[in-house]
């Protein structure tokens, strides 16, 4: 349960610095993981991206300030990290649906987003089928696109990348590379450092790397495998959320921080729904005490 404690401490840091310069890197350090993984875990566990959470919390506080103080709007904007009145107005309207000046009126309806506090809650009942496998190192070959530390941006980038690759001859080439039977195509999220984050559409193979593609070696690891049947995008998001909030806290394992792998069937149409798998690398729980989500 140590990972949950660290995530709460990172959220405490965010809350304590809503009126100051807020560092994603510092929040990730407190959570004992990379900035990329912290944002990813946060979005799955909390159901909202870190950037959106911070925006909502700052605009909640800004609305309180507008209604109880006579301070200038620009001063409140600066207090919550907005140097531009236009940017502050846009952020405020995205949360409240009205302008900051309109928010001063008594009786106006505003939206308040309370601070998040994470705890393990047993909702019970819904089955989560899985299997644990030990797999030797695997080599994947395919195409990749850079990822950002902003998870909101990644949620737009990845579907667009799938659409682009599927509409090209490269998709068929990747499918032919697969050494799995039946053939599978993989979605792989890889983090090697702040400047080396990318998502790959690839196949597991020992074949030579086609021109314009790349090869990547995933180390041997223990994996928990979840099976899905339904909408790929929705189910994959759901698996990661349930992994962190329902499976991991009671499993005796810790998240290993290796590439996360989505496994899809090779098909002639754009892969939107069907049977798929999510592979997440795990390690023994005592390693969690060494500060590694």
TrEMBL record:
The keyword Plastid does not apply. The keyword Acyltransferase does not apply. One of its GO terms (molecular function) is sequence-specific DNA binding. InterPro entries: AraC_E-bd, GyrI-like, Homeodomain-like_sf, HTH_AraC, HTH_AraC-typ_CS, MarA-like, Reg_factor_effector_dom_sf, Tscrpt_reg_AraC-type_HTH. Pfam families: GyrI-like, HTH_18. Residues 8-106 form the HTH araC/xylS-type domain. Keywords: DNA-binding, Transcription, Transcription regulation. This is AraC family transcriptional regulator. It comes from Candidatus Pullichristensenella excrementigallinarum. The lineage of its organism: Bacteria, Bacillati, Bacillota, Clostridia, Candidatus Pullichristensenella.
């Amino acid at each position: 349960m140590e990972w949950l404690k660290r995530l709460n401490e990172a959220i405490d840091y965010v809350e304590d610095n809503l009126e100051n310069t807020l560092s994603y890197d510092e929040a990730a350090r407190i959570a004992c993981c990379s900035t990329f993984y912290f944002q990813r875990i946060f979005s799955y566990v909390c159901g909202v991206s870190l950037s959106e959470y911070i925006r909502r919390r700052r605009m909640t506080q800004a609305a309180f300030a507008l209604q109880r103080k006579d301070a200038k709007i620009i001063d409140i904007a600066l207090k919550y990290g907005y140097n531009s009145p236009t940017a502050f107005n846009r952020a405020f309207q995205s949360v409240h649906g009205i302008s900051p000046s309109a928010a001063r009126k008594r009786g106006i309806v505003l939206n308040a987003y309370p601070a998040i506090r994470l705890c393990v809650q047993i909702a019970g009942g819904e089955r989560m089928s899985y299997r644990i496998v030990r797999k030797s190192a695997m080599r994947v070959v395919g195409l990749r696109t850079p990822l950002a530390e902003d998870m909101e941006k990644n949620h737009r980038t990845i579907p667009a990348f799938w659409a682009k690759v599927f509409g090209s001859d490269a998709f068929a080439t990747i499918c032919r590379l697969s050494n799995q039977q039946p053939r599978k195509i993989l979605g792989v999220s890889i983090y090697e450092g702040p400047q080396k984050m990318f998502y790959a559409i690839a196949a597991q193979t020992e074949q030579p790397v086609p021109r314009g593609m790349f090869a990547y070696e995933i180390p041997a690891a223990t994996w928990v495998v979840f099976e899905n049947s339904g909408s790929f995008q929705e189910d994959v998001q759901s698996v990661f959320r349930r992994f962190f909030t329902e499976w991991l806290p009671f499993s005796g394992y810790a998240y290993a921080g290796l590439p996360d792998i989505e496994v899809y069937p090779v098909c002639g149409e754009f892969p939107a729904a069907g049977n798929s798998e999510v592979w997440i690398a795990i390690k023994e729980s005592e390693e969690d005490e060494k500060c590694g989500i």
